[in-house]
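Pipeline run #58 for the internal structure catalog. This entry was flagged by the ingest filter as a single-chain record with no existing model, so it goes straight to prediction. Upstream metadata was stripped on purpose; only the residue string is passed forward. Reviewer on rotation: M.T. Logging verbosity set to normal.
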Amino acid sequence: MIDAFKGKIAMVTGGNSGIGYALCEELLKRGAIVYMAGRNPAKVAEAAKKLAAQGDRIHTVTVDVTKQAEVQKAIEDTVTQAGRLDLLFNNAGVGGTKPFEQATLEEWKTIIDTNLWSVIYGVHAAVPIMLKQGSGHIVNTSSIAGLFPPPFQSLYAATKFSVVGLTESLRYEYAERGLHFSTLCPSNIATPIFTKEINGTVHNELKIPDDAYPVDKAASLILDRVAEHKGIIVVPEDGAIEIWHGYAVGHPEIEKFLLNMARDRAAAYAKGGNYY
């Protein structure tokens, strides 16, 4: 599975932090040529510098994924420079956990533009290129919140369920045309997403949950499953898959689990404005 990425051209959006950065690092370890994409050129350059030992296999791309023209240009420029695009990780995204009645329409627009439209823009730009090549693999980042609906995450779940539906539909549509699609559905992974609001505001008083899965291990598992052309990739695999399957069939214990989660989060918000 490690050899599956050797010499492959991969673009990773949101590549300068969190899961995106870990994917860039693991792809490089497995021999890929990586185009690390992000909105802030200074932050992308700083992140890429940490991987400088990989030499000319790490490249940087500045792109605001909420703008279709920029996404189109970033992908086309990468193909012009590299000659092809084997893997596209539409990974950029923002979290969103708050009571529905407190959410503004501007926050709805921000999260949909970032978590859903950016994926659509990436797929729209990459599919014609990959069809012409006769091969390619697109990995769209959703969330475990795209497989079952955590309470107080209606904004987030709306975008992430959409990404799952989009990607799964495309997986079957292009299955016999040389293209592969995977949906990445992380559970609690140790990244800064827990400390940020939808608009990007960072709250230093918040922290990553103690039981969050290490991001480097997550990246390794993700690429193992991508190499297998797995459709829905849940990471970590223990626990979350059982909840997803139980929710899908309406298992009473999962219904109870989600109702209890709603009560606990409501109480947490009433006390301190945070769900954990």
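catalog note: The CA atoms of residues 66 and 118 lie 5 Å apart.
catalog note: The mean pLDDT is 92.
status: ready for reviewer M.T.
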